[in-house]
Write a structure and sequence with these properties.
Layout (H helix, E strand, L loop, with lengths): L2 E2 H4 L8 H4 L2 E8 L4 E7 L6 H14 L4 E7 L7 H14 L11 E6 L5 E7 L4 H6 L2 H13 L3 E7 L42 E2 L3 E2 L12 E2 L7 E5 L11 E3 L7
Parallel strand pairs: 3-4, 6-7, 9-11, 11-12
Antiparallel strand pairs: 1-2, 2-3, 5-6, 8-10
């Protein structure tokens, strides 16, 4: 089967025109594993991140567990961006390669026909690790599978591992504070005594004889001025409204 990607996956979402104009060469779905595999062809090179977003959109929209596309391009589409993406892909698959391609420069030059030479300028070494991981073989195999190019891979720049020196940490000398004369601190001024409001004589308050309070000795210790008739607490009813009551105080906070 062969169909335009835009026709097959248009319900999935809108993507770059170059992706929608690509051709779906093959596609199969494993219902038991909920896995889709396929192969797509493009006339121009599509960056790895854009293709990853496309695959993830297909997986999410179709509620699949995994989607695996392979991609093929014409020989003329091979470029430094493609080489950089293949290196990033291999680095994502092998944690031992992390860091070695930071700020690396990729260049494509024509070698002896029909070879194409990919030159990588390293900034942080790692040549021995790249050899141990068979990076060159894996890299050139993917170039061949995607672009039908038999190529060569060359490295220059910083090939040996770079030893990172730890920055020197300057420690301040430990000072015995007891040996250093301290400024004499003046004693704090004594706090002013708290002002105590003197009790006010109660006037204008009708105190019944049953209250057991001598009117001349009644003093107000808190609140606004009291006026009106004093009611015994036990005689207070809901209809009294705002009232003045008297009674024995057992405790207070």
């Amino acid at each position: 089967m062969a169909a335009a990607i835009g026709e097959v996956f248009s319900p999935v979402g809108e993507f770059k025109k170059e992706i929608m104009n690509g051709v779906l060469l093959s596609c199969s779905v494993d219902p038991d594993e909920r896995r889709l595999t396929g192969c797509c062809s493009f006339d121009t090179y599509i960056r790895r991140n854009d293709l990853l977003m496309f695959s993830e959109a297909v997986r999410s929209r179709l509620s699949l567990d995994s989607v695996k596309f392979s991609y093929v391009f014409p020989k003329t589409a091979y470029c430094p961006a493609a080489a950089e993406d293949i290196a990033a892909e291999l680095r994502a698959e092998n944690a031992m390669l992390n860091g070695y391609f930071n700020k690396a420069v990729f260049e494509i030059t024509d070698g002896k026909e029909p070879l194409s030479v990919t030159n990588v300028t390293l900034k942080f070494g790692g040549m021995e690790t790249l050899k141990a991981c068979n990076f060159e073989r894996e890299f050139l195999q993917r170039v061949h599978d995607r672009f039908s190019i038999d190529g060569e891979l060359a490295f220059d720049g910083q090939l040996d591992d770079v030893t990172m020196e730890r920055p020197e940490i300057k420690q301040e000398p430990i000072v015995n504070k007891a040996a250093v004369p301290q400024p004499v601190q003046k004693p704090a001024a004594p706090a002013a005594p708290a002002r105590v409001q003197a009790p006010k004589k109660v006037t204008g308050l009708n105190i019944p004889p049953t209250a057991g309070i001598i009117a001349d000795t009644a003093e107000q210790v808190y609140g606004k001025k009291l006026t009106g008739n004093l009611i015994e607490l036990s005689n207070l009813t809901p209809d009294e409204g705002e009232s003045l009551v008297w009674g024995e105080i057992f405790s207070r906070r």
